[in-house]
Automatic annotation (TrEMBL):
Its EC number is 2.1.1.-. It comes from the Bacteria. InterPro entries: Methyltransf_25, SAM-dependent_MTases_sf. CDD domains: AdoMet_MTases. This is Class I SAM-dependent methyltransferase. GO terms for biological process: methylation. One of its GO terms (molecular function) is methyltransferase activity. It comes from Plantactinospora solaniradicis. Keywords: Methyltransferase, Transferase. Residues 51-146 form the Methyltransferase domain. The keyword Transport does not apply. The keyword Transferase applies.
Length: 278
């Protein structure tokens, strides 16, 4: 792996958080296909394009992008060895010869100048310690006239998939609002535009996209997902008085209102952002 500066993120995504996501990614009912399709449509990937997928995780968006870039190539970049292991296995199973993965920090990775036509990211680009530097590094890796398309969350308050279960736990603890999360670092439209233009991108277009997030077939499955996720584990670590069984019950109560015939779907408010390299 090349040099990393996002050490906290690397630790998190190489530890239980990465293992948790890798384990969950095999489940069809956890896939948010509508979001991936919206991202890839916005990216306008051509058949010969060379694409980089930033924070590709277990590689769902990389695999889908490879179908668009059938005579091109896709490189998925991620900090997490455990997630990339899953991504590589899935690419082999799908028989996609034009996808490769590299464990690297996209903020500082020494990509060759102009090596990609398109950069994409599905919720993998909000974690840079220095966002302008990170986006500048990605912009440098794009050819002149190349483009970026990515998804990131809008306001925390509008993302019930994050707020509803965590608030239920916080309320039980008698604790106030939710702590800030790096996940929402690009939620503010002005800030988002400032970061991208500061990094040299042009024609920056954030479009609001409201698509619910899927968390499995039932509230029970969703509660298990949340119990293993970073934000909930961090609440539990700070609350020794909250037994895991009690936490599961609290989560079940919070998640049942979102259970329906298509499983647990909880409102999500995202930005679908496109921008170009001049
Ligand atoms: C919320 S997950 C999204 C994963 C995947 N794109 C998906 O949609 O399932 C965020 C991912 O970004 C990766 N990530 C965070 N910061 C990164 C960085 N600086 N460079 C590369 N990957 C990073 C994490 O390792 C993690 O896999």
């Amino acid at each position: 792996m090349t040099h990393i500066v996002n050490t906290e993120q690397a630790t998190a995504w190489n530890g239980p958080e990465g293992a948790h996501w890798a384990e969950q990614s095999g489940r069809d009912d956890a896939v948010n296909g509508e979001l991936t399709m919206a991202l890839l449509t916005a990216a306008e990937i051509g058949p010969r394009d060379h694409v980089v997928d930033i924070g590709c995780g277990t590689g769902e968006s990389s695999r889908q992008a490879a179908r668009y870039a059938a005579q091109g190539r896709v490189l998925g970049i991620d900090l997490s060895a455990v997630m990339l292991e899953h991504a590589r296995a899935a690419v082999t199973a799908a028989g996609l010869p034009n996808v490769a993965f590299e464990q690297a920090d996209a903020q500082v990775h020494p990509f060759a100048d102009g090596q990609f036509d398109v950069a994409i990211s599905q919720f993998g680009i909000m974690f840079f310690t220095e966002p302008v530097a990170g986006f500048r590094n990605i912009g440098r890796a794009l050819r002149p006239g190349g483009r970026i398309a990515f998804l990131c969350p809008r306001d925390m308050a509008a993302n019930a998939w994050y707020v509803a279960p965590l608030s239920a736990l916080q309320t039980w603890r008698g604790s106030g609002g939710l702590p800030d999360s790096q996940m929402f670092s690009l939620a503010d439209r002005g800030r988002l535009t400032e970061v991208l233009t500061g990094a040299g991108f042009v024609d920056v277009r954030p479009r609001p996209l409201d698509v619910p997030m899927g968390f499995g077939s039932s509230a029970g499955v969703a509660a298990e997902f949340y119990l293993g996720s970073g934000p909930v584990r961090s609440v539990l670590e700070r609350s020794p008085e909250l037994a895991p069984e009690r936490a599961r019950d609290i989560l079940l109560d919070a998640l049942r209102p979102y259970e329906g015939p298509d499983g647990v779907l909880i409102p999500g408010a995202h930005w679908l952002v496109t921008a170009g390299r001049p």
